[in-house]
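wait is this the right file?? whatever heres the structure
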């Protein structure tokens, strides 16, 4: 059976689905043969993040959905991240991998790390298939072009693991697991109050541990860090499973639709005298649109915050939610900003001294 269709999922599958809503991420996070399953929680999470990035390029921002559903304040979870500009050869490699299965894109990212590159050179770069991928990797490795200093960008990182723990502690999600040597039982709310979720044991998969024990586990000071356990990620409670049906209700496969917003916008009631007022003040939204475009300028593949029109649409969505308490549908936003983009480009072209004139 495909792992996505199984009635119970492990914690890594749960988090992968929450991040990506991609069945292939759930399949990737399955627990295979214990002796050969080397997928760590970090790799599984990155696989899911890559799937979410592909969804964002198609117009669905899953992280934005999570912020809205959780009622968490993104500004409370801001971090500074460094982003490096890609060389032409790196862009060619990434462009190729982004059109291939997610496993290929993940392999590429791992290969470009310092450790990944060393491992690949030891094992033999000539073994990489297909030939086109091997050729592109060789081009990047041979590229001696100097790298520009990184750009420091402040981003809001959704607290996936902490949010899951909160859902378990208030009963929104229900899990079962085994105490060592005992049969599986549902983990009660009282028990969750003294538990937390963390990576543990020698497989580095997500597990459930008693509060205060995870610090030791992370630093290898606990005997369980050397334990194989019954399953990857085995913690103080082993083989933790969450019912698939409950997961899909809380994290639906399809993007939520603000039906009232769509209905209100469908007939452009604001155009009709005496009609229902629009869901948002589009004049205010237009001002925010021009502010964003003046601040960021044209979309650039080197800017992770502004590499496609989808990033602009996400900013407009977030602005509407924060300003008006409502989120227009993505299609409505796209229809609205299309003429604004043309107007902005015309203004930019007409600006005296602009190099494009």
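ok assuming it is, sequence goes like this
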């Amino acid at each position: 059976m495909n792992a996505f269709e199984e009635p119970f999922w492990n914690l890594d599958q749960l988090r992968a689905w929450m991040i990506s809503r991609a069945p292939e991420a759930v399949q990737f996070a399955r627990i295979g043969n214990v002796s050969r399953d080397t997928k760590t929680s970090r790799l599984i999470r990155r696989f899911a993040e890559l799937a979410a990035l592909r969804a964002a390029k198609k117009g669905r921002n899953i992280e934005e959905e999570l912020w809205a559903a959780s009622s968490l304040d993104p500004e409370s979870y801001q971090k500074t991240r460094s982003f490096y500009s890609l060389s032409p050869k790196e862009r060619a490699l990434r462009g190729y991998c982004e059109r291939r299965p997610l496993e290929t894109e993940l392999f590429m990212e791992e290969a470009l790390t310092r450790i990944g590159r060393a491992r690949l050179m030891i094992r033999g770069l000539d073994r990489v298939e297909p030939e086109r991928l091997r050729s592109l990797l060789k081009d990047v490795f041979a590229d001696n072009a100097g790298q520009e200093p990184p750009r420091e960008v402040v981003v809001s990182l959704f607290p996936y693991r902490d949010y899951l723990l909160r859902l378990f502690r208030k009963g929104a999600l229900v899990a079962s697991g085994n105490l060592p040597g005992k049969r599986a039982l549902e983990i009660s709310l009282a028990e969750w109050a003294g538990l937390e979720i963390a990576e543990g044991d020698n497989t580095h998969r997500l597990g459930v541990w008693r509060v205060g024990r995870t610090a030791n586990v992370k630093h290898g000071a606990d005997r369980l860090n050397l334990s194989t356990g019954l399953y990857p990620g085995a913690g103080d409670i082993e083989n933790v499973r969450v019912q698939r049906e409950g997961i899909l209700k809380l994290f639906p496969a399809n993007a939520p639709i603000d039906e009232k917003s769509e209905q209100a916008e469908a007939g452009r009631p604001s155009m009709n005298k005496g009609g229902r007022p629009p869901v948002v003040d589009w004049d205010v939204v237009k001002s925010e649109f021009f502010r964003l475009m003046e601040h960021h300028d044209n979309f650039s593949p080197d800017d992770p915050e502004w590499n496609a029109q989808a990033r602009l649409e996400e900013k407009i969505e977030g602005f509407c939610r924060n300003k008006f308490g409502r989120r227009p549908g993505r299609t409505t936003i796209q229809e609205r900003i299309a003429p604004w983009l043309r107007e902005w480009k015309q203004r930019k072209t007409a600006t005296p001294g602009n190099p494009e004139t």
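The chain has three domains: 3-155, 160-250, 259-346. so i think its the right one actually
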